[in-house]
């Protein structure tokens, strides 16, 4: 049967939905505080963009030409990795240089 233009079942469902959502409502003050805690300032949203911008050319990092073969790239990598490995090179910048060399090799050796 229809009451007020809507089927009775729809009225019951709407009434139940209103009651259900009313039980979970919070006061405006609680909502504002909860939202404020989850806001991340835009200054913290860099997603490591500065590292990727400062990364040098992988060919330059390994000291090979852009037309170098896979074996030449591998040979250059192994030579530089041996030279700058932190276990054998005590220079404070060796670890950073080794990471750059390793990153460049990963980029160039990826098929």
From TrEMBL:
Alphabetical keyword list: Chaperone
Coiled coil: none
Domain J: 57-111
Domain of life: Eukaryota
Pfam family, one: DnaJ
Name this protein carries in UniProt: J domain-containing protein
Organism: Photinus pyralis (Common eastern firefly)
Upper lineage: Eukaryota, Metazoa, Ecdysozoa, Arthropoda, Hexapoda
């Amino acid at each position: 049967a229809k009451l007020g233009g809507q089927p009775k079942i729809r009225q019951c469902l709407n009434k139940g939905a209103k009651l259900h959502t009313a039980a979970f409502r919070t006061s405006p003050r609680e909502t504002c505080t909860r939202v404020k805690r989850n806001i991340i300032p835009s200054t913290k949203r860099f997603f490591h963009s500065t590292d990727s911008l400062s990364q040098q050319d992988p060919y330059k990092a390994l000291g090979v030409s852009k037309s170098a073969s896979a074996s030449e790239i591998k040979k250059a990598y192994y030579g530089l990795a041996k030279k700058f490995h932190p276990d054998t090179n005590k220079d404070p910048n060796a670890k950073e240089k080794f990471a750059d060399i390793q990153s460049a090799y990963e980029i160039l050796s990826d098929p």
